[in-house]
């Protein structure tokens, strides 16, 4: 006997920040590339520009203040400046949304958000982003892990403006050969390079924690792509993985794969088939 099923309502997506990543994701979702999902609301500093950018959408989203976006959505994707992270997270979590932050490093200093999400029936979902192999890292973390390290190499211009670079006075314009500009834990890397190595925070959260995960960052004029190499040793598997991400032209610290990873994360929420951990 066939069950009498009613179709689930479309998931309502809110996007905070309509810059390089946010607008790219919004266009793909509006085109139907995230399944049964609709962009219901967006928040942006320039509301008129946001309205213009979404004017031709099949479903025009509401333009709402960032502190209210959770009231209009089931899912909230964070693509906004770090300065508004707390307001955005509070709105998403207090309204029981699925919160998808791209500023993963901000989570490391806010562990209370996990308990708040539990209490409110919300969920925090961290996308793979620019980092290959998080499935494997999550798997070995179920056993005994000896070490996880990551070496990041970026063209010098991709590291400009990072607090650690400013504090140490490195002149990136004069870097003519590979220069190691940082060595430390994933937590320290996320604080020193908040716009550059959210991958370090994601790696720490997926594996053995941000204080045991070690990171090196190199300003390397010999590379054209943002390159991350992960090496892990454990009782179940030893592996080394390297990914070379192509930077976006508009925002060199961000790889093109970031928006695509966010889209893939959204697809997981609506797809009848989910592949991967």
Q: What is the strand content?
A: 15-25%
Which strand order does the major sheet show?
3-2-1-4-5-6
- By oligomeric state, this entry counts as single chain
Helix content: 25-40%
Any idea of the CATH topology of the largest domain? Rossmann fold
Structural domain count: 2
Secondary-structure element string:
EHEHEEHEHHEHEHEHHEEEH
Averaged pLDDT, please?
92
Number of strands: 11
Account of the protein in words:
The protein has 277 residues and is α/β, with parallel strands linked by helices. It has 2 domains: 11-129 and 257-270, NAD(P)-binding Rossmann-like Domain (Rossmann fold, 3-Layer(aba) Sandwich), CATH 3.40.50; 134-245, Dihydrodipicolinate Reductase, domain 2. Helix content is 30%, strand content 23%. The protein is built from 10 helices and 11 strands. The protein has helices at residues 20-30, 47-53, 85-94, 105-108, 112-120, 134-140, 163-168, 186-192, 198-206, 257-270, and strands at residues 11-16, 37-43, 62-63, 75-78, 98-101, 123-124, 145-154, 179-185, 214-219, 226-234, 239-245. Strands 3-2-1-4-5-6 form a 6-stranded parallel β-sheet, sandwiched between helices. The chain has a 5-stranded mixed β-sheet with strand order 8-9-7-10-11. α1 runs parallel beside α10 (257-270). The longest helix has 14 residues, at 257-270. The model is unreliable at 1-6 (pLDDT under 50).
């Amino acid at each position: 006997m066939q069950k009498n099923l009613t179709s689930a309502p479309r998931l309502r997506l809110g996007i905070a920040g309509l810059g390089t990543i946010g607008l790219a994701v919004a266009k793909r979702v509006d085109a139907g590339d995230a399944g049964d999902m609709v962009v219901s609301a967006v928040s942006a500093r320039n509301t008129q520009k946001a309205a213009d950018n979404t004017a031709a959408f099949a479903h025009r989203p509401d333009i709402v203040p960032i502190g209210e976006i959770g009231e209009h959505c089931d899912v909230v994707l964070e693509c906004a400046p770090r300065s508004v992270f707390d307001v955005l997270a509070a709105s998403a979590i207090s309204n029981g949304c699925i919160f998808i932050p791209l500023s993963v490093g901000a989570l490391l200093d806010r562990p209370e958000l996990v308990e708040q999400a539990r209490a409110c029936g919300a969920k925090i979902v961290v996308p793979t982003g620019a980092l290959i192999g998080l499935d494997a890292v999550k798997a070995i973390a179920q056993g005994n892990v000896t070490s996880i390290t990551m070496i990041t190499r970026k063209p010098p211009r991709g590291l400009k403006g990072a607090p650690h670079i400013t504090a140490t006075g490195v002149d990136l314009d004069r870097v003519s050969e590979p220069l190691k500009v940082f060595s430390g834990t994933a937590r320290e890397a996320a604080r020193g390079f908040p716009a550059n190595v959210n991958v370090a925070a994601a790696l720490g959260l997926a594996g053995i924690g941000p204080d045991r995960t070690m990171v090196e960052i190199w300003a390397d004029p010999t590379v054209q792509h943002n390159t991350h190499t992960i090496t892990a040793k454990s009782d179940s598997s030893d592996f080394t993985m390297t990914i070379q991400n192509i930077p976006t032209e508009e925002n060199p610290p961000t790889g093109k794969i970031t928006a695509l990873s966010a889209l893939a994360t959204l697809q997981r929420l609506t797809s009848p088939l989910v592949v991967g951990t």
